Structures are given as C-alpha cells and as structure tokens.
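A common beginner's mistake is to predict each chain separately and then try to dock the pieces by hand. The better habit, illustrated here, is to supply every component at once so that their relative placement is modeled jointly.
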Amino acid sequence: MAELGYKPNQFARSLKSRRSKTIGLIIPFITDPFFAEFASEVESVARRADYAVILATSRDMPQFEADELTIFERHQVDGLLLVPPRSELKVVMKILRTLSVPVVAFDRPLAGRDFSSVLTNNRSAAQLAVQHLIDHGRRRILCLGGDPSLFTIQERTEGYKSAVALAGIEPLIQHDVGDLNTIVERHITGKQKVDAIFGLYDQPTLIAYEVTKGLRLRIPEDVSLIGFGDFAFAAMLESSITVVEQPIAELARTATRLLLDLMQGVTRSSQQIQIASQIKFRRSCGCEPPT
Amino acid sequence: MAELGYKPNQFARSLKSRRSKTIGLIIPFITDPFFAEFASEVESVARRADYAVILATSRDMPQFEADELTIFERHQVDGLLLVPPRSELKVVMKILRTLSVPVVAFDRPLAGRDFSSVLTNNRSAAQLAVQHLIDHGRRRILCLGGDPSLFTIQERTEGYKSAVALAGIEPLIQHDVGDLNTIVERHITGKQKVDAIFGLYDQPTLIAYEVTKGLRLRIPEDVSLIGFGDFAFAAMLESSITVVEQPIAELARTATRLLLDLMQGVTRSSQQIQIASQIKFRRSCGCEPPT
DNA sequence: CTGTTAGCGCATTCAT
DNA sequence: ATGAATGCGCTAACAG
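With all components supplied together, the output reads:
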C-alpha cells in the first residue's frame, strides 16, 4: 500500500511512543577541527541507527549550554552527547538531572560520577610525548598554550609536569596569556634558550613552528617540537610535525554507540571509557620517521 | 502555574500545528572549515529564531543526499538549507519538489531556477585575483587543484580563463589529478617555469606554498601566490598568503534569514542572492600589506 | 472572557 | 487472524 506514497507522521508516532528518534549534540565550536570530526562521526553512526542529530554549539559558555539543553528538552531528544564547558554551572547540572534521557560526556568528564563519559588519556599521552623529547636529549622544554581552565589542558599540563619532574628538569609553562608569537620568540632567542617545545593544542604548536622557522632556527636541530593533537597541515609542513594523535573517529563512534546502547537499555549503568592516544612520529621531534 | 514545572510537549504541539520548529541542514562535509563556519552561523541564527537544526552530511554524494532528504521528510523539518552535490540526481530533484517546505541552496545553485540560492561571485572574484597576479608582472600563472565537476571550481576556473585571455596569456590549468605535490614541483622547476600560482581552494594553495618553500624558492619573489578561500593558517605563515576571502558568515546569515522568511511567508518568491568575495591582500602576491 | 470539547495520526488494546 | 476504539497532549473552535 505504501506505493500510494504513504508517509508515517513522525509527530503522531512520537506523541504515542514518546520517542523522537533524535539525539542532541552539544559541542563548543563546530569550527574546531577536532569537534568537527567528532560531529561528523556522530552523525554518521547515528544515522545508520536511524537517528537524526540536532546540533548545538555552546561556545564553551555554560549559559549557552543551559539554553541549548532546554531546547533539547523541548524537542524531546532521546539522548544527549555533549562536550561540557569548563565549569559546570548548577543550572546545567540540574537540567541534566531532570532530563530523563541518557547522557554521554565527550572529551571532558561531567562532575558527577554518575554520568557516562568517553575520554582520551590526555595525561599519560602528554607525559610520553614530553618523555620522548627528553629521550632526544632535550632539557629546556617549553609547555605552550591552552586555556588552563579546560580539563584537557590541565591533564596535558600534568603529564608534562610528571615527565619533566622524573627527569629532574624545571617545568616551564606558558598557557594562553597575551601574544603567543612574542612568548615563543622570547623563549627561543633569550639567554635561557629553550631547546624543545610541547604545544598543548594545534594552534600553539603551529605558532611555535612558524616563529621558529621565521627566525631561521632549524626544526628539529635547534628546537625540537611535539604538539598535542594532529591537524591537517602538520604532515604537510617542510619539517613535518610530530603530534599526539587522538583517535577521534574511534572516540566518537564509541561515544555514540554507548549512547545508543544506553537509550535502548542494552547498557544500564554509566560507564567511563578511556581510549589511548598515540604519538605520530614525524620529523619535528628529531626522529626520521619511516616513509 | 509554570512554576510547577510545566513543559509543553513539542510532539503534541507539532501534531496539531504541523510545524516542527526544526530546519534541516545538508552540507558535504562538516570537517571542511568553510562548511563548518557556515553550519556554525546557521545554527546561531536559527536558534535565535527558536529553531533547532538537524545536521546531515552528504559527502558530496547525491545518493547520500537523497537518503537524508527522506529522513528530513520523516522528521518534518519546516525548511531546508542545503549545499547540493555535484550532479542533481532525478531522485533528489523529485524529493525536493515533493517536499512541501521552503528550500535554500547554498554555495552552489540547484538546477531548477525555482529554487532560492545564496552564492558568492566565484567567477569575477577569481578573475580579479588572477588579474592582480598579472598586474604584478606575472605571465606564467598556474591554476591549481579542485574537482572540476563542482560548480564553484568551474566558476573559479572560468574567472581564471577570462583574466589570462584578456592579457593574452596561455591558460595553464591542473585540476585534482594525481599527486599535487609532484605537479607543483614539476611546474616551478621545469624549463617552462611558472612564476605565479592561483590555488582554487585552500588545500592546493597550501601545497603550492609548502612545495615552493621546500625547494628554497622565495614567495613572492620567485613564485607569486594567491588562493581562493581563506584558511586559518594562511595569515600565520612566514610569507602570509593573499587569498580571496569569502564572506562566509554573511552568506550563512543571509541564507538562513532567507529561509526563515520563506518559512514564515514573509517572502514568497524564490530569490537568487549573490554576495561578493573580496581579495585579502597579504604578502604572497607581492604586495606589502598594511599592518 | 473563561471553560469545555473535538481532532491532529498513530499505536495499542480489546472485541470479534 | 482482522477490525474498531481509545488516548497520547496540545490547540483552536465553540459554548456558556
């Protein structure tokens, strides 16, 4: 009979079943390549399970997030995938608790331990990366960039601290304060010259690279460089940049599947899943990677 | 009374009103910075008008697009914003016509002239950019990269052709065929050396830059460079890259507002809107831009 | 101007 | 097995 062009009405169906076949996705910025790839995978997995994805961006502002949560509440999403902003407002947590649908936090945990989360090993991966710089004989390692109020930046910074502490090296940390170009320039030309830089995310990594090259210093000979987080151009640069590569697609698929499982009652209890990031060896650390 | 925590049920409301307060957004790839910024603005404008955005990615495959359209149909989106894939399948056009909601095409037009669209002046902006290279005294200008089956690439290529034709210069076009690195290398070192490159989108522009720098040629002295489409790193590179800057945010806001107007019946007839891209002068073309 | 009611289209129950 | 009836929660029409 469907040949007569019968189309079930989703509204009526939802009214009855109380399910919208929709999941909500809240990320800080869709223009950040990390979150863009995340969103892309979420959408792909969700659609295969016949769920539509409603997108919202929080700009890392808890108030925005709260607004979006109420929108999702109105639209009756069946599940929620979100990257929590830096601080969890009471408002937000309250909405999350009243929201009667499964929630999975991505990239950053949610305060309460009763929420599921899918994270990567920021701390140990950062430690390994910095350890690698030390193995290359580096002793003055600058830890560069990042908003220290973000969970991931905090964790990576801790990893850096552990690595240098183990080697008896004094930590040297410059988070996002003022102009990174100037900061980098000061540290690679001053009397207390730095011989390696660990970029806490893609932006400072690239700045470190460009400033160094611009001052006619060699990478990795004069300054060795590793960044946290891969980015499209890292491999294309003349001295290709060694990075900690986060398995974004796998993280995203895991998070989405976990959410779908929770929604279908397959999994009941909340889960904290951690997936390891790996170092992607290229030239900037001092290794000659296999081609 | 709402203090007792009354929440209207969107399903029931939609069942009655026949409107979902939802718009559908189909883009080729959310991981493409151009479309990511587009999506970001769409979401922002839509939310201010109290509409939720359902995201779908077509991967530039008409079949994917058709699938997504049927999903949107089921979810009863009130309007549709899409970047049409290269060729319009009959299937797709048929669905679009049966879909009884307003449709706005973005970045690329839809075959039928009865669809609204918001585009930029790919052709004339490209022509101006190439003309600018010619004004810098360049005569051997390589037009590089891009899928020639895409509308935007075709238009930009036409702009290039017009500019060189006016100057009596032989066109030299290499679309995406094989390894761009090799192609660039051959063209800047061969006997028929190229003295300028026009990148048709960000990727080939950056490849042109890196290959040139890697071969120790100077930009802009040896090779002058302009790219179509700005990208985050273009301004950060040592020889900052002059680009045709598309007003993405404005394009996106215009498209979304047009869609909202169509949905609310404010605007009835379909509109073709074109917004001009501007050249963003930096160093790679040979200009010394004001700082 | 406030209060009651019918019906949106589906899914589920109950009767046949 | 197939078929008729009820209600999901809201909105709009209508009655008091």
